[in-house]
């Protein structure tokens, strides 16, 4: 990916049924996998941007890890 310098955060959804949205069960828990840049959600509360953001500087190459979580 070629990105301009700046502050970014990635969120990833494994949209298993291809409907373009996150699906939830009757208790409000995600039914599909999700992940955030360099952050593993260990609890049930959605992280805020500050918890998974990163800064990309000019001419810098970064390796961003994303681990999907399935509840």
Automatic annotation (TrEMBL):
<dbReference type="Pfam" id="PF09912">
    <property type="entry name" value="DUF2141"/>
</dbReference>
<protein>
    <recommendedName>
        <fullName>DUF2141 domain-containing protein</fullName>
    </recommendedName>
</protein>
<dbReference type="InterPro" id="IPR018673">
    <property type="entry name" value="DUF2141"/>
</dbReference>
